[in-house]
Design goal:
The structure holds two protein chains of two kinds. By secondary structure, chain A is mainly beta. In chain A, 0% of the residues lie in helices and 52% in strands. The chains are: A mainly beta, B mainly beta.
Chain lengths: 118, 107
Protein backbone atom coordinates (compact mmCIF):
# COMPACT_ATOMS: atom_id res chain seq x y z
CA UNK A 1 0.00 0.00 0.00
CA UNK A 2 1.34 3.40 -0.99
CA UNK A 3 1.79 5.69 1.99
CA UNK A 4 3.01 9.27 2.13
CA UNK A 5 3.37 10.78 5.59
CA UNK A 6 4.28 14.45 5.94
CA UNK A 7 5.80 16.00 9.05
CA UNK A 8 7.57 19.15 10.12
CA UNK A 9 4.76 21.67 9.96
CA UNK A 10 4.05 24.15 12.71
CA UNK A 11 3.99 27.78 13.71
CA UNK A 12 6.86 29.95 12.50
CA UNK A 13 7.46 33.68 12.54
CA UNK A 14 7.64 35.70 9.33
CA UNK A 15 11.15 35.49 7.92
CA UNK A 16 11.74 32.15 9.58
CA UNK A 17 12.55 28.74 8.19
CA UNK A 18 11.05 25.28 8.34
CA UNK A 19 11.81 21.92 6.78
CA UNK A 20 9.01 19.58 5.80
CA UNK A 21 9.56 15.88 5.34
CA UNK A 22 7.52 13.24 3.55
CA UNK A 23 8.19 9.60 4.36
CA UNK A 24 7.24 7.31 1.50
CA UNK A 25 6.51 3.61 1.65
CA UNK A 26 4.79 0.88 -0.33
CA UNK A 27 6.45 1.67 -3.64
CA UNK A 28 9.88 2.03 -5.24
CA UNK A 29 10.49 5.63 -4.26
CA UNK A 30 13.52 6.22 -6.46
CA UNK A 31 11.55 5.63 -9.66
CA UNK A 32 8.95 8.36 -9.20
CA UNK A 33 8.87 12.11 -9.60
CA UNK A 34 7.47 13.77 -6.49
CA UNK A 35 5.70 17.07 -5.88
CA UNK A 36 4.62 19.43 -3.14
CA UNK A 37 1.19 21.02 -3.41
CA UNK A 38 -0.25 23.49 -0.90
CA UNK A 39 -3.64 24.78 0.11
CA UNK A 40 -4.19 27.94 2.10
CA UNK A 41 -7.08 27.81 4.58
CA UNK A 42 -10.37 27.88 2.70
CA UNK A 43 -8.63 28.28 -0.65
CA UNK A 44 -7.78 26.15 -3.67
CA UNK A 45 -4.86 23.92 -4.53
CA UNK A 46 -1.55 25.36 -5.65
CA UNK A 47 1.43 23.50 -7.05
CA UNK A 48 4.67 24.37 -5.24
CA UNK A 49 7.53 22.26 -6.56
CA UNK A 50 8.55 18.97 -8.16
CA UNK A 51 11.66 16.83 -8.28
CA UNK A 52 12.78 14.13 -10.66
CA UNK A 53 13.15 10.55 -9.46
CA UNK A 54 16.95 10.79 -9.15
CA UNK A 55 16.93 14.34 -7.82
CA UNK A 56 18.68 15.74 -10.88
CA UNK A 57 15.93 18.14 -11.93
CA UNK A 58 13.72 20.47 -9.90
CA UNK A 59 11.04 23.07 -10.67
CA UNK A 60 9.31 25.70 -8.57
CA UNK A 61 6.32 28.00 -8.62
CA UNK A 62 7.35 31.63 -9.02
CA UNK A 63 5.86 32.43 -5.62
CA UNK A 64 8.44 30.25 -3.84
CA UNK A 65 11.42 30.35 -6.19
CA UNK A 66 14.58 31.37 -4.39
CA UNK A 67 13.01 30.73 -0.97
CA UNK A 68 12.08 27.04 -1.06
CA UNK A 69 14.25 24.06 -1.95
CA UNK A 70 12.93 20.61 -2.78
CA UNK A 71 15.19 17.61 -2.28
CA UNK A 72 15.03 13.89 -1.71
CA UNK A 73 16.97 11.12 -0.05
CA UNK A 74 16.29 7.98 -2.03
CA UNK A 75 18.18 5.84 0.48
CA UNK A 76 15.75 6.98 3.18
CA UNK A 77 12.66 7.10 0.91
CA UNK A 78 12.08 10.66 2.02
CA UNK A 79 11.11 13.88 0.25
CA UNK A 80 11.92 17.27 1.72
CA UNK A 81 10.88 20.88 1.34
CA UNK A 82 13.21 23.42 2.91
CA UNK A 83 11.34 26.68 3.34
CA UNK A 84 13.03 29.95 4.22
CA UNK A 85 12.12 33.64 4.33
CA UNK A 86 8.60 32.54 5.14
CA UNK A 87 5.73 34.95 4.65
CA UNK A 88 2.19 35.06 5.96
CA UNK A 89 0.96 34.03 2.50
CA UNK A 90 2.88 30.76 2.80
CA UNK A 91 0.41 29.67 5.49
CA UNK A 92 -1.17 26.49 4.14
CA UNK A 93 -1.52 22.76 4.39
CA UNK A 94 1.38 21.26 2.45
CA UNK A 95 0.79 17.97 0.68
CA UNK A 96 3.38 15.56 -0.62
CA UNK A 97 2.23 13.83 -3.82
CA UNK A 98 3.49 11.03 -6.03
CA UNK A 99 3.54 11.65 -9.76
CA UNK A 100 1.68 8.96 -11.70
CA UNK A 101 3.00 10.18 -15.03
CA UNK A 102 2.66 13.49 -16.86
CA UNK A 103 2.39 15.47 -13.64
CA UNK A 104 -0.62 13.59 -12.34
CA UNK A 105 -0.94 13.59 -8.55
CA UNK A 106 -1.72 9.92 -8.12
CA UNK A 107 -1.23 9.61 -4.37
CA UNK A 108 -1.36 12.25 -1.63
CA UNK A 109 -0.21 12.43 1.94
CA UNK A 110 -2.51 13.66 4.70
CA UNK A 111 -0.85 17.08 4.68
CA UNK A 112 1.02 19.13 7.27
CA UNK A 113 -0.06 22.61 8.34
CA UNK A 114 2.41 25.47 8.19
CA UNK A 115 1.35 28.69 9.90
CA UNK A 116 3.43 31.81 9.42
CA UNK A 117 2.51 34.37 12.02
CA UNK A 118 4.04 36.57 14.68
CA UNK B 1 1.96 30.23 -17.76
CA UNK B 2 -1.23 28.25 -18.35
CA UNK B 3 -4.34 29.49 -16.54
CA UNK B 4 -7.11 27.05 -15.73
CA UNK B 5 -10.65 28.39 -15.42
CA UNK B 6 -13.35 26.23 -13.89
CA UNK B 7 -17.06 26.89 -13.99
CA UNK B 8 -19.27 27.12 -12.13
CA UNK B 9 -17.45 27.90 -8.89
CA UNK B 10 -20.32 26.31 -7.01
CA UNK B 11 -23.56 24.55 -7.73
CA UNK B 12 -26.49 23.10 -5.85
CA UNK B 13 -27.90 19.79 -6.98
CA UNK B 14 -30.07 16.95 -5.78
CA UNK B 15 -29.29 13.27 -5.43
CA UNK B 16 -29.79 11.68 -8.82
CA UNK B 17 -29.07 14.81 -10.81
CA UNK B 18 -26.67 14.94 -13.73
CA UNK B 19 -23.89 17.44 -13.07
CA UNK B 20 -21.33 18.85 -15.48
CA UNK B 21 -18.30 20.91 -14.54
CA UNK B 22 -16.28 22.76 -17.15
CA UNK B 23 -12.57 23.51 -17.20
CA UNK B 24 -10.89 25.72 -19.77
CA UNK B 25 -7.15 26.13 -20.33
CA UNK B 26 -5.65 29.39 -21.52
CA UNK B 27 -3.74 27.48 -24.20
CA UNK B 28 -3.78 23.98 -25.58
CA UNK B 29 -2.77 21.28 -23.13
CA UNK B 30 -3.58 18.32 -25.38
CA UNK B 31 -5.19 15.79 -23.01
CA UNK B 32 -2.96 16.50 -20.00
CA UNK B 33 -5.89 17.31 -17.78
CA UNK B 34 -6.70 15.66 -14.47
CA UNK B 35 -9.70 15.87 -12.14
CA UNK B 36 -9.64 15.59 -8.35
CA UNK B 37 -12.29 15.36 -5.68
CA UNK B 38 -11.70 16.86 -2.24
CA UNK B 39 -13.86 16.47 0.83
CA UNK B 40 -13.55 18.79 3.84
CA UNK B 41 -10.46 18.16 5.92
CA UNK B 42 -9.15 15.51 3.54
CA UNK B 43 -6.49 15.32 0.88
CA UNK B 44 -7.68 15.44 -2.73
CA UNK B 45 -8.34 12.19 -4.55
CA UNK B 46 -7.52 11.62 -8.21
CA UNK B 47 -10.66 10.74 -10.18
CA UNK B 48 -9.68 11.06 -13.82
CA UNK B 49 -6.32 11.43 -15.55
CA UNK B 50 -5.42 12.43 -19.12
CA UNK B 51 -8.87 13.93 -19.59
CA UNK B 52 -10.86 10.71 -19.67
CA UNK B 53 -9.09 7.82 -17.89
CA UNK B 54 -11.10 6.77 -14.89
CA UNK B 55 -8.93 5.77 -11.95
CA UNK B 56 -9.28 2.35 -10.38
CA UNK B 57 -12.03 2.28 -7.79
CA UNK B 58 -13.75 5.43 -9.03
CA UNK B 59 -17.44 4.83 -9.83
CA UNK B 60 -18.43 4.76 -13.48
CA UNK B 61 -20.91 7.60 -12.96
CA UNK B 62 -17.87 9.88 -13.24
CA UNK B 63 -16.59 10.63 -16.72
CA UNK B 64 -14.30 13.13 -18.36
CA UNK B 65 -14.07 14.48 -21.88
CA UNK B 66 -12.17 17.02 -23.90
CA UNK B 67 -8.86 17.92 -25.44
CA UNK B 68 -6.97 21.05 -26.34
CA UNK B 69 -8.46 23.79 -24.19
CA UNK B 70 -11.96 22.64 -23.21
CA UNK B 71 -12.76 19.84 -20.79
CA UNK B 72 -15.71 18.55 -18.82
CA UNK B 73 -16.30 16.36 -15.80
CA UNK B 74 -19.73 14.76 -15.67
CA UNK B 75 -21.42 12.94 -12.82
CA UNK B 76 -24.39 11.11 -14.32
CA UNK B 77 -26.38 10.43 -11.17
CA UNK B 78 -25.21 12.39 -8.16
CA UNK B 79 -24.87 10.35 -4.98
CA UNK B 80 -24.70 11.64 -1.39
CA UNK B 81 -20.97 10.86 -1.21
CA UNK B 82 -20.29 13.03 -4.28
CA UNK B 83 -20.93 16.30 -2.48
CA UNK B 84 -17.44 17.75 -2.43
CA UNK B 85 -15.16 20.21 -4.21
CA UNK B 86 -13.76 19.27 -7.61
CA UNK B 87 -10.57 20.61 -9.16
CA UNK B 88 -9.12 20.33 -12.62
CA UNK B 89 -5.34 20.44 -13.09
CA UNK B 90 -3.14 20.74 -16.14
CA UNK B 91 -0.09 18.52 -16.37
CA UNK B 92 1.15 19.83 -19.69
CA UNK B 93 3.82 22.27 -18.57
CA UNK B 94 5.46 23.90 -15.60
CA UNK B 95 4.29 25.83 -13.69
CA UNK B 96 1.59 23.25 -13.13
CA UNK B 97 -1.77 24.75 -12.30
CA UNK B 98 -5.22 23.99 -10.94
CA UNK B 99 -8.60 25.43 -11.62
CA UNK B 100 -10.23 27.39 -8.84
CA UNK B 101 -12.50 24.53 -7.83
CA UNK B 102 -16.21 23.74 -8.05
CA UNK B 103 -18.09 23.13 -4.82
CA UNK B 104 -21.00 20.75 -5.31
CA UNK B 105 -23.58 21.26 -2.60
CA UNK B 106 -26.85 19.62 -1.69
CA UNK B 107 -29.96 21.39 -2.90
Amino acid sequence: EVQLVESGGGLVQPGGSLRLSCAASGFTFNTYWMHWVRQAPGKGLVWVSRIKSDGSSTSYADSVKGRFTISRDNARNTLYLQMSSLRAEDTAVYYCTRDGGWNTYEYWGQGTLVTVSS
Amino acid sequence: DIQMTQSPSSLSASVGDRVTITCRASQSISNYLNWYQQKPGKAPNLLISTASTLQSGVPSRFSGRGSGTDFTLTITSLQPEDFATYYCQQGSSVPLSFGGGTKVEIK
